[in-house]
Please model this.
Amino acid sequence: MIHVKKPLKVLMLSHSSEIGGGAERSMLDLFDHWAKQGLIEPEFIIRHPVKNMAPELKKRGWKYHPVYYTNWSQRNLSRRAEDVFRNARENTKAVQKIQEIIRKVKPDVVMTNTIVSPWAAIAAYFERVPHVWFVREYGDADHRHIFEIGREKMFEDIGTMSDLVVTNSQTLGRYVAEYIQNTSITTVYTPFDLNALEEKASQSAPNPFVDDSSLKLVITGRIAPSKGQHEAAKAVGELNRRGVNAELCVIGDAAEAGDDERLKETIAHYGIEKKVHLVGHQPNPLAIVKYADIGIMPSHREAFGRVTFEYMSVGLPIVGADSGATPELVEDGKNGYIYTLSSATSLASKLMKYAKDPTLIEKHGNYARKKTVAMMEGKYNADHLFQTMYDMLSDPSQLKNKHPLNYAEHWLNYPLIAQQYIDESRVIAMSRLLYGRSRSAAKSLYLAGPTMAKRAVLPITPKIPKKFRPAKMEAAYQKLQKEKQAKADHLKKLGINPHGKK
Model:
């Protein structure tokens, strides 16, 4: 138990306002753990429009600030000039809005959750407030993201703008350290409530497996090529061809349209439609996971493996790929087995060990439970991170001397100035058009004389709504209207209706 004189005021930016992925759930788990001990007073910046994270924050009595922003890391980067400009304009507004929030809240530290949105970090840098960045993903290898400024430069900037970088596994920490220099990097394992996980597993749910004597396998998560569900199905097909009665339960929906096609093709190829059970998204996956014998983690690059940990917490051994942080959680031959990434044959061979010796299931499952307890009590737990962070904030010598270029902050105004120019250009163009047409009409009347002038009319032009007339152009616009009126009055004196009406 940690004791502090007063709670830290924390302002955290979440890249999303929706609790849809592990990053958001891990953030809430961490803040719940700290808040229960009275260590923090948190406020959040969440992406507008507000989604299902808002009621979760309200339930905890935590304030949040909806702000619209886009990401510098996403699957499909904007390419059209119009989209790039629009994003720059909105993200400029977001940084300036967050600066206002920082000045109002006066947090002891600003935090950013995940690598995809840097706007709170930029605002904190300009305001010279300490910043902690939680890196929870590789980005490209695990989520198919493209980095707007490239991977190397992005991670360099993450280091530059942060006083502390926190990763969710030692494996990811070593990866990040290749790009980030002169910034402290540490690791925190999400503070899971082991009792709560057990309680979730005890809840009732339909058993998807149909054969009591089968080797029951489960894989959980959004269906995507990088998550390896098709690889698990192929391994099940191989096992059944070798005479092993194996079933697989796939929990989760396709991440994007078409992401489940390869899985379905594999199932059809092996004719295992009755052996593979696609149950879709489940609000409580652990209620189904408990029916399985073994959990499978074939992800191509898991930054931590929240699902892996949850398998272990309820006593399932894991067979996982030799990639990402999976080998950090799975000790080969102790709480599961490690197989060669992308090799369904290797996966099937490891699963075969349990088919040949079912006693390993209980043995490895018990070790898995013990390992989860050790992880929660070890040096990478949430209390240790808080103490590290608290000591850093208490000692100014551990913080970076942030000296952002004044012109860099001024540069943020340029997208907004460009938008003002666009708005004013519309009025200028309309003003010139109206002035030109009016002058041309007046000149024609003068040259034609009174007789011909009776046949001439002034062009009918729409009135420009005031909301589209920037303040600087209002005087020019009013002057134009007066000139038009003067010309109309002149025509009336000649007995001519300026709009050609009798």
Remarks:
- The domain at 8-191+381-408 is CATH 3.40.50.2000 (Rossmann fold).
- The radius of gyration is 31 Å.
